[in-house]
Amino acid sequence: MENIIEISHVTKDYGRGRGVFDVNFFVREGETLGFLGPNGAGKTTTIRQLMGFIRPDSGKLSVMGRDCFKEADKIHALVGYLPGEIAFIDSMSGMDFIRFVADIKKMNGLGRAQELIEMFELHASGKLKKMSKGMKQKIGIVCAFMNPDTQVYILDEPSSGLDPVMQNRFIDLVLNEKKQGKTILMSSHMFEEIERTCDRAAIIREGKIVAVEEMEKLQAGRQKMMEVTFASSDMAKAFAGEIHGAQYTEGARKVSAKVGKELDTFVKKAGRYTVTDWNVQTQSLEEFFLHFYGGEEGKV
């Protein structure tokens, strides 16, 4: 399978540990790859180099076999790009800006713009300078996805500023593009967004790639804090005795434990007793880094 996006040993050093260092990964044709990492880890710097806005100190980047710096104009015409910070022309209305982008892309008409406007409940007639962060993000999504001929998408924190309902609609949009065989690179600091949409994830930390893994492996490595309340303290005590590392206070009815890939076993054991309540708290991205890759406490 052909690699549509290739990033080969790319370094951009801004000094004092800032930048990206020897970044190396690829996105196959028809694959959705998540670019996962905390804010400030180097996701946007990498993506801006892919789009030819920044020249790397060393290494090479290509999209569809084209050099990202030398042939940036051709890449811009072919890729559905959603930047982390969109440069709007505030004097325009949202609809004027959509038309402006369509002209830049040399589209014949507005493609799927109206369909996307309705999907995201976008009021595009208002002036951009008066729009909220979420509304501007919807404009960016429309601009990135409105050309039906686009085969490659590069998306930088695409659901930033969207409410939960619109985040779900965005995920539906990505999944639909994925079904059509489109190639997608999507950065995010939200594990759930990557988990629901991506085949693999490249994880960046402090400007360096710590792993490129299949989503199944990452899901297996992520723990959940399970808190189970039983009908009696005797049940809670007995259950706690079956679970390694369980947290239990004498006389209480609640048991807490961190659970990873042994979730099925945990649930079946709890099911032998009378459960009256059940809470699940998934590891934060920071906790996930510490658990899955190790590191200093409190440092991401």
Automatic annotation (TrEMBL):
GO molecular function, one term: ATP hydrolysis activity
Residues annotated as domain ABC transporter: 5-231
SUPFAM superfamilies recorded: P-loop containing nucleoside triphosphate hydrolases (SSF52540)
Keyword Nucleotide-binding carried by entry: yes
UniProt entry keywords in alphabetical sequence: ATP-binding, Nucleotide-binding, Transport
Record family assignment: Belongs to the ABC transporter superfamily.
Protein name: ABC transporter ATP-binding protein
Organism: Mediterraneibacter hominis
Lineage: Bacteria, Bacillati, Bacillota, Clostridia, Lachnospirales
